[in-house]
Each structure stands twice: as structure tokens, then as C-alpha cells.
């Protein structure tokens, strides 16, 4: 979805109504949006822009999630973003923000493992520590994807472009998470530089094999 939940003015009522009509018609298994904003009172942007992880933003974002969930009559999932910068005056890190958001609203998490790799690669920390801070009970779905790497004088910049196979680090994180916590609905995102069908299916088959390998332990 693109409700731009983090925009200063909050979500737009007619967009929420259109989403509610869509959900009433098709009854999707899950509804999700990003931990980000993508517009202001006058414009919409093509990017998912990062939020300041402050107490004030937590209050604001939680209020928007509550509005969506109350209107739709269902729990929604919030997806962790790919980040390329961090605000200087954050009150908490991303995982703490997500934990408080889930506790306050009852929403779930769409866990994008590639976004964890990109964010920690760009801002510091380790993907393993990030994932260890995630309560598996929050997770309603998992996303996997590839990313691009640009080399600059300051070091590498990782870009979430969905234009390549899932990387080895993301596969290892996914395998460890599923082995520890059981199968979760999984989507592989590949929407730029799209390869042939056989390549796409090979990625899907790899995810499926990990799910099957670990399904018996949680049956």
C-alpha cells in the first residue's frame, strides 16, 4: 500500500476509503504498508522516505495505524524499510520503534530481510543483531530480494533495487529464522532487471525448500 502513514498530516481519508472498498471486494489474506512516509500535504514521491524514530513520531504513526485497522476491521502489517540515513535526534532504534508500535496498536510485522541487510550495511550494526531483536510472533509475512551495491570513497552504499537474486546473507538469515521459529508466508521481490521465468522459479523453489525442511518440526 502507499498510504504514507508517516506523513505529517496523516493519511488521506479518501485513500483509506478506497482501500477499504478494495479489501471488502477481494478479502486479501493480509494488508500491509511501510514504516515510512512518501509525501506531504501537496505531493507524493516515488520513494519510501525514512522516519525519525522519536516518541512524537511513534504517537503519530501509531494513530495512523489505528485509523487503518479500525476502518478495515483487521490487523495490518508494517514493513521495515531500507534506510540510507539516520536522524541525529532519534530517541530509539528501529527495532525498539517497531516493538513499541506493535505493543500499542496490535499490528504485525512484514519482515523484509533484504531491507535489514541494506539498512545495517548502510547505517551500522549487524543484520544478525537486528533479527534477534524481532519477536517472531509479530511476523505475518517475510520478504526476500536482492540489492545493488555502489562503491564510493566513503565506502559501499547498498540500494534496495529488487534487481538481482537474493543474496547469500539474506538467505542465511532467512534459513536461521525459519529454522528457529517455523515457516512464515514468504514473497520474493524481483521487479527490476527481471530475468527469465526459470530464474524466478529457482528463487521461489529455494525458499520453498527451506520452508519444507523446517515444517515438520512445527507441525
Write up this protein.
The chain has seven helices and nine strands. With 219 residues, the chain is α/β, with parallel strands linked by helices. It has a domain at 1-106: Alpha-Beta Barrel (TIM Barrel). Strands 1-4-5-6-9 form a five-stranded parallel sheet. Strands 2-3 form a two-stranded antiparallel sheet. Helix 3 links the parallel strand 4 and strand 5. Helix 2 (55-72) crosses helix 3 and helix 6 runs parallel beside helix 7 (197-215). The longest helix has 19 residues, at 197-215. It is globular and about 40 Å long. The mean pLDDT is 94.
How are the elements arranged and paired?
Blueprint: H1 13-26, E1 32-34, E2 37-39, E3 44-49, H2 55-72, E4 77-79, H3 94-105, E5 108-112, H4 113-123, H5 127-132, E6 139-145, E7 148-152, E8 155-159, H6 168-181, E9 186-189, H7 197-215
Helix pairs in contact: 2-3, 6-7
For this entry, give a set of tags.
219 residues, alpha/beta, TIM Barrel, five-stranded parallel β-sheet, two-stranded antiparallel sheet, 9 strands, 19% strand
Structure described in brief:
By secondary structure, the protein is of the alpha/beta class. It is 43% helix and 19% strand. The strands form 3 sheets. Strands 1-4-5-6-9 form a 5-stranded parallel β-sheet.
Topology as a string of helices (H) and strands (E): HEEEHEHEHHEEEHEH
- Residues in helix, %: 40-55%
- Major β-sheet strand ordering: 1-4-5-6-9
**Architecture per CATH nomenclature, i.e. the level-2 architecture of the domain at 1-106:** Alpha-Beta Barrel
Coarse morphology: globular
How many helical stretches? 7
Amino acid at each position: 500500500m502507499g498510504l504514507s502513514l508517516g506523513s505529517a498530516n496523516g493519511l488521506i481519508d479518501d485513500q483509506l476509503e478506497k482501500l477499504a472498498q478494495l479489501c471488502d471486494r477481494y478479502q486479501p489474506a493480509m494488508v500491509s504498508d511501510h514504516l515510512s512516509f512518501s509525501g506531504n500535504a501537496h505531493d507524493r514521491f516515488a520513494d519510501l522516505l525514512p522516519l525519525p524514530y522519536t516518541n512524537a513520531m511513534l504517537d503519530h504513526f501509531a494513530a495512523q495505524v489505528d485509523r487503518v485497522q479500525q476502518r478495515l476491521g483487521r490487523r495490518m502489517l508494517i514493513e521495515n524499510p531500507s534506510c540510507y540515513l539516520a536522524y541525529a535526534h532519534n530517541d530509539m532504534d528501529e527495532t525498539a520503534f517497531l516493538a513499541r508500535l506493535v505493543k500499542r496498536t496490535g499490528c504485525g510485522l512484514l519482515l523484509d530481510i533484504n531491507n535489514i541487510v541494506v539498512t545495517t550495511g548502510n547505517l551500522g550494526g549487524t543484520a544478525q543483531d537486528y533479527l534477534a531483536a524481532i519477536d517472531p510472533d509479530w511476523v505475518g509475512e517475510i520478504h526476500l530480494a536482492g540489492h545493488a551495491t555502489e562503491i564510493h570513497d566513503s565506502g559501499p552504499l547498498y540500494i534496495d533495487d529488487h534487481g538481482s537474486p537474493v543474496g547469500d546473507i539474506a538467505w542465511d538469515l532467512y534459513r536461521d529464522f525459519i529454522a528457529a521459529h517455523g515457516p512464515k508466508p514468504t514473497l520474493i521481490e524481483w521487479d527490476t532487471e527481471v530475468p527469465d521465468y526459470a530464474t524466478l522459479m529457482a528463487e521461489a523453489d529455494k525458499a520453498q525448500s527451506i520452508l519444507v525442511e523446517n515444517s515438520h518440526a512445527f507441525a
